[in-house]
Amino acid sequence: MTKKIVITGIGATSPLGGTAADSWSALLAGESGTSTLDHEWVARTQLPVTFAAQARVPSVDVLARHETKRLDPSSQFALIAGREAWADAGSPEADPERLAVDWATGIGGVWTLLDAWDTLRERGPRRVLPMTVPMLMPNGPGAAIGMDLHARAGITTVVSACASSTESLVNAYNRLQAGLADIVIAGGSEAAIHPLPIASFAAMQALSKRNDDPATASRPYDITRDGFVLGEGAAALVVETEEHAKARGARIYAELLGGAVTSDAYHITAPDPEGTAAARAMITAIRNAGASLADVSHINAHATSTPVGDIAEYNALRRVFGDLLDGIPVSATKASTGHLLGGAGAIEALFTVLALAERMAPPTINLLNQDPSIPLDVVTMPRTLPSGDLLAISNSFGFGGHNAVVAFRSV
């Protein structure tokens, strides 16, 4: 028998705020989390892109000193978001054997890895920290949450580029449906604002180069869009069976209806311009939700602000919804947060949950001249969603041709 799966807790640290509530408030206010980088390494390495969307609240302001010393920034962000989500869910007295973690990252402990390499070259092997490997492992963020909350039903790490944390939510849903846990902490984190990823993304012409106006650099669907903005942070959602949530009197934000994962098998970085597999992921997610296309009331789009990516997603959306698409409000929240890579799906799923809970579609900032080849109903000011039963989807697509879509229903 299919179980109802619900969201009972949320947490985040993002370029918009140090908590889920602060991030949401800043998003609705139309703020941008992007600014010029003031690190000395920007000039020293002669980076062609000098801005990014950094976490608004530094981890050192939240975590204990020993935690920041023994955790890579990607794990620090995960721990902050995971703890907030757990507290928001009421810090349930869960059976550790029935508590799991499904976490995600796109790159993992890049700061730890590259700092250790510099140490090895400059100071020799004796100066490399013994915690280097545990800190750089991609499963480090999920493990940090799992150990903190004593989750013993399993800790799974998804690494599928920018689709990673949406896929983690799909996995969490499937784990709960299979009866392998009662509660899952799902989400993703990324901390890749480092000279090497910036230089690499810039070399492939993926990043915006608006160094003179960073706050407006991420502009999904705008005719002048020229690339994405690198972001960092984490978001976590507490996912549990409705039966378990109601038994403990938990507040429920929304119902998680599941999702779908497909792959393009087309190109390592470019999306399939026809959007065939991306469309199949959306259709499957909606079908798995037991819904019809006409039921979809809101879409949080992947929309990275790249010339190729935005139109490929539009083609997929049009392939799925046809003329129905014209009446569905679409939010592209990377305009405010930048692109959190492996953490993007989680923060956007969190925003989708809050959009349903508060019946408010968040705005897409920086859209001044909408690309006429992408005729979407883009939300540019906070927009009230209708009363009644609402269904929303959140899309994520990643290098390697990964497509992941998750669906939620209002409660």
Describe the structure.
The chain has 411 residues and is an alpha/beta fold. Helix content is 34%, strand content 20%. It has 14 helices and 15 strands. It has helices spanning 20-28, 40-44, 65-70, 73-88, 110-123, 132-136, 140-149, 164-177, 195-203, 242-247, 276-288, 307-321, 334-337, 344-358; strands spanning 5-13, 35-36, 51-52, 99-104, 155-158, 183-190, 233-241, 254-263, 296-300, 329-331, 360-361, 377-378, 383-384, 391-398, 402-410. The strands form three sheets. An eleven-stranded mixed sheet has the order 5-4-6-7-1-8-15-14-9-10-12, with helices on both faces. A two-stranded antiparallel ribbon has the order 2-3. A hairpin with a 3-residue loop joins strand 14 and strand 15 (402-410). Helix 4 (73-88) packs parallel to helix 7. The longest helix is centred in the N-terminal third of the chain and has 16 residues, at 73-88. The chain is globular, with a radius of gyration of 20 Å. The two termini are 21 Å apart. The mean pLDDT is 98.
Q: What's this, in brief?
A:
This protein has 411 residues and is an alpha/beta fold. It has helices at 20-28, 40-44, 65-70, 73-88, 110-123, 132-136, 140-149, 164-177, 195-203, 242-247, 276-288, 307-321, 334-337, 344-358; strands spanning 5-13, 35-36, 51-52, 99-104, 155-158, 183-190, 233-241, 254-263, 296-300, 329-331, 360-361, 377-378, 383-384, 391-398, 402-410.
